[in-house]
Model the fold of this input.
Amino acid sequence: MPKRQRTRRPAQRRSEHETPPPSQRPPAGRTEEEPVSQGAEKEAVAGIDGATMPDANKTDLTRRITAAAATWLDARGFRPVETEVPAVTGWVADLAGFCYPTRTEAQSLKLIDKKPPYPTGLTSFSEEYHRVLEKWERTYAALPLPLTAVVEVKASPADLARDTKWGRQLPAHLVYLATPPNLVCGESLDARWGMLVLMASGDMRLHRSAQVNDVAIEQTLSLVCQIAMRRDNFTRAARGREFEKQARQTTNTEINRKRLSKAMEVVLAVLDGKPVDDVLRDSAYREAKLPKWQIEELNGLAKSFQRVRV
Done:
C-alpha cells in the first residue's frame, strides 16, 4: 500500500489590522521598534534595608543613580547611608554615610593597596617582606575613623553647571560625584573628588578613587550626628506606626471580647423568654451592638423551640 504524502499547510499571514497573540505583543508602554535597555528592569529607587527614596522633584535617572550609589556605599561598609543630609551650612548632600572600614573594604575604596603577597620559595624569615607588610599596615592604621563620605548625584550637564560647591571646603573624608556615563571628564573635576559612574547594567563603578581629606573632628562628629538624626527620623516614624498598630489591635481585641460577652447575655435572655422590647432596652444589647432584626429572629426561633419542647 503506497504511503500517503503529507502536504504542509501554508502559513497564514496576519493582517496589519489583526491583533497579535499575547505572546507576540510588546510590553505595555513600549512599541515593537523600541529597544529594551539592559538596565530597564531597575526602575524603582530602593535604599538600604528595603527603604525607598521617592522624590517628586528628581528624575527617574537621578533616582536610579542615587539608589546605585547608596548600594555601592553599603557594600563597602558605610552604614547607615542616608539621603538629603545637611553636611555643612549651604550643603545638603544627596547621600552621606560613615563606616569603620576593614582592610578589604579599604582596598575596595582604593584607599590602600592590596596586601603584599608573601614571596614564593622562601623557607626562612624574610626581613624585607615584613618591612613591606608593616608599611602596608601603617597605611591602613592611618585612615581616619570614623570614615565619612558624601555623594553628589548629577544626571545632566545643566544640573552639573548649576552647582557651585566644587571649590568649597569638603565636609567629609571622601567625596564622590555620581553621574551617568560620559557626563564629566575626569580632568575637569577637582582631584579631591572621586567619580562613580552608573553602568548600563544598573551597577555603580568606581571610575576614579577619592582622596582622603583632612576634616576637623568637630565636622566629622557633626556629620555623623546629622546622618544618625536622618536615620532616626525614619526609624522613629516606623516604630511609632508599629506602636499605634499594636495599640489598636489590643483595643480592638478587648472591645471584641466585651461585645461577645454582652451578645451572649442578650442571647441567653431571649432564650429564657424575656420580651424583645425589654431586651432592646437593656444596656447589654446596646453594648453588644447587635442588629434589631437579629434579636427578633432569635426571639422567633426561641418561641418555636419552646413549642417543640411542649
Notes: The chain is about 40% helix and 15% strand.
